[in-house]
Amino acid sequence: MPVGGGRAPLRCRPESMFIRQLKYLVTLAETAHFSRAAEICHVSQPALSTAIRNLEKELDLNLVRRGRNYEGLTTEGERVVGWAQQLLSSYDAMRQETVSAHNNLSGMLRIGAIPTTMPVVPFLTAPFQDAYREIRLAVLSLSADEIVRRLDNCDLDIGLTFLDEAALAGFRIFPLYVERYVLAARDPAILRNRTSLSWNEVAELPLCLLTANMQSRRMIDAAFRTAGAVPRIRVETDSIFALYAQLRCSDLCAVVPHSLLSLIELRDETSVVPITPLLSRRIGFVARRQQPQPPLTETLLEMALQMSLQERFDRLIGRP
């Protein structure tokens, strides 16, 4: 026992083994199932269980509550998982840094995007991947709240979301464009040769809108309420691509951010007009405030901030 009766120092072990133990623990916490965690980590269940038990011995803590099956983390385990997520994020960033020192970026970049921005993601990532062929992307459609939560937990590297959220305090934000909401319709006769429509006029049309749990829809509902209008909603969907399909294949109209028009910019059958008063939101990247920034994140930001997305999307509103 050390002098003074304190706890014996942790045994020195290869870093790669320690990192694997942390990954196993974090994956177990995410899946809440030993077999699924082992499958994701590409190891046998006994190997994963043994590694986590060894981590518990090394830390002299019980991290997992065990019965016949996985029963969750202990209080100490939940705290260790939080630290493990931060350590693994820093470890991945360090590995990216060493690779970038050889001018050959590679690895996985995890992007969370609110649903209405999913059509925009390829504009931002295609040049990035063209320049660095070894980079892989994981692009997840998430709510604004979930993006914040996953960034905090180091489950995401960067988010594409609304920038005027109070929950973003403490993050780095990078404005990209202002999305403007417009009315889109397949039949131009519905628009009666108007160059714009009021929210009251839009409310009288047969509409397909996103579901009420989505933030974009809540903004649209607020605009209708302010105008004192009750919209004629025929179809609701939580998929921006299902909304697009309804717009193309039915007589329904849709209220959409003008960036979505990039999906249909080559299709002459869709007509678009602005809605007054204007409804708009700032959109941009959000990242954890850390220095140095991981090379993959920093490189994507450098390339994306040079793009003229605002000009590109604003031109789409002027289509016939």
Q: Which helices and strands appear, and what pairs or packs with what?
A:
Elements (H helix, E strand, L loop, with lengths): L14 H17 L2 H8 L3 H15 L4 E3 L3 E4 L1 H26 L5 E8 L7 H11 L2 E8 L2 H9 L5 E5 L9 E14 L11 E2 H5 L2 E5 L4 H13 L4 E6 L2 H10 L3 E5 L13 E6 L3 E8 L7 H10 L4 H9 L3
Parallel strand pairs: 3-4, 3-5, 7-11, 8-9, 8-10
Antiparallel strand pairs: 1-2, 5-12, 6-10, 6-11, 6-12
Mean pLDDT: 85
The dominant shape is elongated
What is the CA-based Rg, rounded?
A: 24 Å
The beta-strand count equals 12
Global structural class: alpha/beta
Q: How widely separated are the two ends?
A: 81 Å
Portion of residues in helices?
A: 40-55%
Order of helices and strands: HHHEEHEHEHEEEHEHEHEEEHH
> Per DSSP, what share of the residues sits in E-state strands of 2 or more residues?
15-25%
The number of helical runs is 11
Spans with pLDDT under 50 lasting ≥5 residues? 1-15
What composes the largest sheet?
10 strands, mixed
Structure keywords:
320 residues, disordered N terminus, 10-stranded mixed sheet
Structure, explained:
This protein is an alpha/beta fold. The chain is 42% helix and 23% strand. The chain is built from eleven helices and twelve strands. Strands 3, 4, 5, 6, 7, 8, 9, 10, 11 and 12 form a ten-stranded mixed beta sheet that branches. The longest helix has 26 residues, at 75-100. Residues 1-15 have low confidence and may be disordered.
Short recap of the structure:
42% of the residues lie in helices and 23% in strands. The protein has helices spanning 15-31, 34-41, 45-59, 75-100, 121-131, 144-152, 199-203, 215-227, 240-249, 295-304, 309-317; strands at 64-66, 70-73, 106-113, 134-141, 158-162, 172-185, 197-198, 206-210, 232-237, 253-257, 271-276, 280-287.
